Amino acid sequence: MNKSLTNNIKKISPRRVILPVLLGLGIVGWFIYRDFHRIEFTSFIFSYYSILFIGLAVILMVLRDFGYILRLRILSSKELSWRKCLKIILLWEFGSAITPSVVGGTAVATIFIWKEGLPLGKSTSIVIATSFLDELYFTLMFPLAFIFFTKTELFNVIGSSVAANQLLVFALIGYSLKLLWTILLGYSIFINPKLFASLITGIFKLKFLKKWNAAAKDMAINFEISNREFKTKNFNFWLKAFFTSFISWTSRYWVLNFLLIALYYSLKYEVYAQFLSLHDHFLIFAKQLIMWIMMLVMPTPGGSGFVETIFNSYMAEFVPITGFVVIMALIWRMVTYYPYLFIGVFLAPAWVNKNFSKIKLKKRTSKK
């Protein structure tokens, strides 16, 4: 199993930062080059309120991570310290930032938790529980978006009705996948843990994975045992865990709203005439939710390239300066995405060396 873990941990190699950065910044650079001459910089004025709301946007990202840390503490029954939870979340977010959205950081999250002191089976159970809570948030919020807003409002793309229909199809495919995955996870956690355990052992019966079959069986047994503990948890336990997920995701989506307020405070009054209405703010929130679901079917790391491209037309109606929308996309990604890449570059190598050098040392010792 050590060999498989070593292969998995390569997924968080800092070298993999290069691809998402090149994809994201490359597309943003092209749009800026194309539209820079159209931006009316004379429309901007300096405002301390802009700095205030940018600061609040950053605080929302901190609140988002705190929600994840608190959730990890709850699901681990406080066996993981605050410091360990912080380290795991930062590594987890780094893993999500450098892998395709459909994979996310969950592919290596079990290793992060296990190496911080929990049994492998319980680590797997916690990752599955967090995945379930995240997907539950999306499966509940997506239908609400259609209740409060029309299809035209949600999928409006400036200058293209065809693109709007394509986005609707992407969103429905992404939501269907999330709904099916949520049902499978919920069934495995609350009704039949053997289902996921059987799935784990079944996968490792494949010819090219057979050498890890014994270790996979041990993990499946440990998962089933530790999952029985989750089945005994009361409603309040799950309510608190879901509330932390709700806080985390909602905080993240309101970051763009605060950045747009900062932008509006930076413009002369005659340019924007009035601030975004409350209806507009909730529409921005709903469109981000849909954009995130569409990212599920994108093969690029962290949705790089896709997010910057779709933002340029999908959110253009809320940016009153011609040609500035792509710069707005860059600012948004600088707050919500790129920090995890750069934190991971420094954190991941030290963590890997600390936790996997021991494996190499044991191998050398055993050979002697």
Describe the structure.
Helix 6 (120-148) crosses helix 13 (278-294). The chain contains 16 helices and no strands. The longest helix is centred in the C-terminal third of the chain and has 31 residues, at 235-265. With 368 residues, the protein is mainly α. The protein has one domain (2-10, 27-367). The two termini are 21 Å apart.
Write out key terms for the chains shown.
368 residues, mainly alpha, 16 helices, disordered N terminus
What class do helices, strands and sheet pairing give? mainly alpha
The percent range for strand residues is under 5%
Largest sheet: none
- Count up the helices: 16
User: What level of helicity do the residues show?
Assistant: over 70%
Distance between the termini: 21 Å
Structurally, the number of domains stands at: 1
Uncertain runs with pLDDT below 50, 5 residues or more? 1-6, 359-368
Structure summary, number of beta strands: 0
> Which shape, going by the Cα principal axes?
globular
Order of helices and strands: HHHHHHHHHHHHHHHH
What's the short story on this structure?
The chain is mainly α. Helix content is 75%, strand content 0%.
Question: Layout of helices and strands, plus pairs?
Answer:
Elements: H1 2-9, H2 18-35, H3 48-75, H4 82-97, H5 106-115, H6 120-148, H7 151-154, H8 161-190, H9 193-203, H10 213-231, H11 235-265, H12 269-272, H13 278-294, H14 306-314, H15 325-336, H16 338-367
